[in-house]
Amino acid sequence: MFPLSWKAMAMPALVLLQLFFLIKVESSLSLFDKITQLPGQCFVGFQQFSGYVTVDDKKQRALFYYFVEAEFDPVSKPLVLWLNGGPGCSSLGVGAFSENGPFRPKGQFLIRNEYSWNKEANMLYLETPIGVGFSYSSDSSSVTVNDEITARDNLVFLQRWFLKFPEYRKRDLFITGESYAGHYIPQLAKLMIQFNKKEKLFNLKGIALGNPVLEFATDFNSRAEFFWSHGLISDSTYKMFTSACNYSRYVSEYYRDSVSTVCSRVMSQVGRETSRFVDKYDVTLDVCISSVFSQSKIISPQEVSETIDVCVEDETVNYLNRQDVQKALHAQLVGVRRWDVCSNILDYELLDVEIPTISIVGSLVKAGISVLVYSGDQDSVIPLIGSRKLVHELAKELGLNTTVPYRVWFEGQQVGGWTQVYGNILSFATIRGASHEAPFSQPERSLVLFKSFLQGRPLPEVF
């Protein structure tokens, strides 16, 4: 047996040293993004990070993120990516600071959200696409985007975000969001599965879609039945709204700047009867609303006679436009003068809304990805009627049997909503009394739903 040379003996030690150095460098990248404390924030025991991930080095295109570790035992909790819709609305301002994040701005201070989703998971909020919120590009043409570009950028973001936070690479990963995220999330998940065939990076377990746009005609045309069943329109107007000009036709004409006389007449009648004094995103809510609902208005063109009365000062907008807050977040304004809930500079291909994503959802289920579609039942913009129908038809197409029959679920001692599960992998649920932005309007019930989703369990059957 020949003795090993010095070089042969030294090689393993050298490799180990290089790996150790690489891990240390990668881990230290996140330290640059660590938030010491947000202005007006009380003491908390969990860590927060925010900053930029460049998704295009040549054009200097960068996406802004806000990451909140789980409140308790973050090492054992999954990673959840949250995306708001629009297209073009902020996951930071809407999702994190108005819906399910740990804080809500109130004057000069931040107050704790008792039902924050970081009680159950490590929450990652992404301002996407480029041109939304603090996300930016040095090339003005980069704010002209579509679904395909958005999905690709989001994929690159996650790849590079894991370089900052390598400890999360093998963590169970879920993607959640609402509204136009019904396009963002399935398209991103599809790319992640394709990427994993070359290199296993994403440990994707499931997606949850809240009041999502999944199939243009079904989702939009269910608005007529919702209006009629809730007493917002008359029988005669319902008949016109389902025969002479349905809502998907009107939106399609609106986006093409070619609204026909008949559609204009029908929408005027619908607008008169539903009234501008009823909030379409929560038909039980009075009209004084926060701009948390801005993301809904992008996908729902204003009807002819409709105006929105925003009579509540938006605390989030004021807070995120403070210089001390932007400094604490490591954020900057590029190409805009102020931070807005929904982007004024983004040029999104709005006709992409007509591309169905329900078939992509089906392919995810086939790949073993758990899917939950949930609906705030007071939303008339993307009503539960269409979402429930789409999920049921998808289950039938995939040959999935009902494993949890349609039933109520509970939060505390109250009915939280209704649910049905197919094949223990595809679920539908409503959140009773919730709006388009369910975690904003029904935070406690939304947290119960979120926890059940992460655990892969049916929603509670008893109080």
From TrEMBL:
Q: Which domain of life is it from?
A: Eukaryota
**May I have one GO cellular component term?**
extracellular region
Sorted alphabetically, which keywords does the UniProt record give?
A: Carboxypeptidase, Disulfide bond, Glycoprotein, Hydrolase, Protease, Secreted, Signal
Q: What EC number(s) does the entry state? A: 3.4.16.-
What is the annotated signal peptide range for this record?
1-27
Question: Which GO terms fall under biological process for this protein?
Answer: proteolysis
Q: What is its main location?
A: secreted
InterPro entries xref list: AB_hydrolase_fold, Peptidase_S10, Ser_caboxypep_his_AS, Ser_caboxypep_ser_AS
Question: Which compartments is it annotated to reside in?
Answer: Secreted
GO MF terms, alphabetically ordered: serine-type carboxypeptidase activity
The family this protein is said to belong to: Belongs to the peptidase S10 family.
Biological function: Probable carboxypeptidase.
Which PANTHER family does the record match to this protein?
A: CARBOXYPEPTIDASE, SERINE PROTEASE FAMILY S10 SERINE CARBOXYPEPTIDASE
Give the protein's recorded name: Carboxypeptidase
Recorded source organism is Nyssa sinensis
